[in-house]
Amino acid sequence: MATLAENTALSADAVEQIIERYQEPAWLAEERRAALRSYEDQPFPTERDERWRYSELRRFALDGLERVQEPADPSVSERIRMRITDSDAEGVLVHKGNEVIHHEAKIGELTEYQKALETQLEKLGVDRKKLMADYKNAQSDLEAKQKLISLMEAVRAMGSFITFDQACQLPAMQQTIRFDDDSAWHGATASTWAQTPMAKLLRPWQDLVRQALHQRDLEETTRRLIWFHLTCSFNSDGQWPPTLPEAPHIIHPFNYRYCFEHLLRAELLVGGVDRTRLTQAPTEALQTILGMQQQLVADKAQRLMADGDMHRQTDANRARLLIEASRNVDSIGQSSVLQPSEYAVRADAMVEARRLVGGVEIEQVATGSEQFVDD
Predict the structure, then answer these.
(1) Domain with 244 in it
(2) Considering the chain, what is the average pLDDT of its residues?
(3) What are phi and psi of 104, to 5 degrees?
(4) What average pLDDT does the segment 292-299 reach?
(5) pLDDT for the residue 186
(6) Do 29 and 142 fall into the same domain?
(7) What confidence score (pLDDT) does residue 60 get?
(8) How far apart (Å, rounded) are the C-alpha atoms in residues 167 and 150?
(9) At what angle do helices 253-270 and 220-233 cross, to 10 degrees?
């Protein structure tokens, strides 16, 4: 990785010194060397990379990395102190070994906007710490201050703020309320969300947990906790997008892990369910979610291997191998649930293969006379 090319703290010599100092066994020594080789083979991330797209990479600097020298010294080195002084980061955390040896907040004085906002929130009786205000976006919009103040004033005029638990104790409204049972986020319908590949995989499991929750004699605190985790497992991001032929997007591994882990917690708290009743095969869901993009990447890799230059051919061959690996489902076997790690390792391999071939056309969205191609 280019950022550490000149840093001796992460080099072959440094690795050998560590091995020698601790007289490490051969297997561990080889693991260290392999880790360094793997690191050196990785390019520095860019904002085009899926997992780094929303990161501020210019702040991601590792050139201040230093190797701990024995005996352990809790002081901060002069080089690190210089970097802290020169940094405009709002917070600093320095590790040495497994210990935090220095931390500080570097948040400066409140801006005029923040002062005005805090004053107004105090007048309205709003707890600032509980208000998730996006200060950065607000400061970039000159009208945002007044918009937020107006919104809070309008809400406050409707009555006092209460918690959800308090709201549940209020008497039911007498007015007739009509709503569409099939309404959902983003103008879609609930039935559409329920038919996505990941929803089809999770929903039967969720139904078993819900059924057990209603049938079993559970302590009230446990019942409420189960309901919380079960509700979180229905998070829409873990079941969307639907992965259509004309738009074969994939579900982000983090979002699926979120739903899976909440559902697993709910199942454990309810005392378990009979998973043999789950008939949707995880391998089928994987094929539906990843299959179309895998084929797009594989086809492009094949074209590049035939017509590209040597560098592109090398990347294309690596992409082809990654796609082959992402299609292998042997480790899943006959499991009735799809473990998040099983999904993530295949999704990540496919995304890396997509990067190696320079992206593929996933969807075209018309915007007037132009079209946006998402790769």
Answers:
(1) 192-374
(2) 80
(3) -160, 150
(4) 95
(5) 65
(6) no
(7) 63
(8) 24
(9) 160
- Is the separation of the CB atoms in 240 and 193 below 8 Å? yes
Query: Of 282, 283, 301, 286, whose CA–CA distance to 250 is shortest?
Result: 286
Partners of 104 in the β-ladder: 92
Question: In sequence order, which residues have a C-beta less than 8 Å from that of residue 63 and are 6 or more positions away?
Answer: 3, 4, 6, 7
Instruction: Indicate the pLDDT class of residue 369, thresholds 50, 70 and 90.
Output: very low
The single-letter DSSP state of residue 11 is S
pLDDT in tens, 103-156: 776 554 445 555 666 676 676 666 655 554 455 454 455 676 677 778 888 887
DSSP of 333-358, one letter per residue? TT-SS--HHHHHHHHHHHHHHHHHTT
Strand stretches in 119-206, DSSP E: none
Least confident of 47-61, 167-181, 218-232: 47-61
Report which listed range, 36-40, 175-179, 287-291, is most confident. Answer: 287-291
Mean per-residue pLDDT for 329-341? 92
Count of structural domains, the chain: 3
Q: Do 283 and 231 share a domain, yes or no?
A: yes
Residue type, position 334, single letter: Q
128 lies in the same domain as 273? no
Q: How many helices (H) and strands (E) does the chain have?
A: 14, 4
The first and second tokens of residue 280, run together, are 């949707």
Burial of 166 (0-12, 13-18, 19+ CB in 10 A): exposed
Residue by residue, DSSP assigns 61-79 as --TT--PPPSSP--SPPHH
Are 241 and 360 in a shared domain? yes
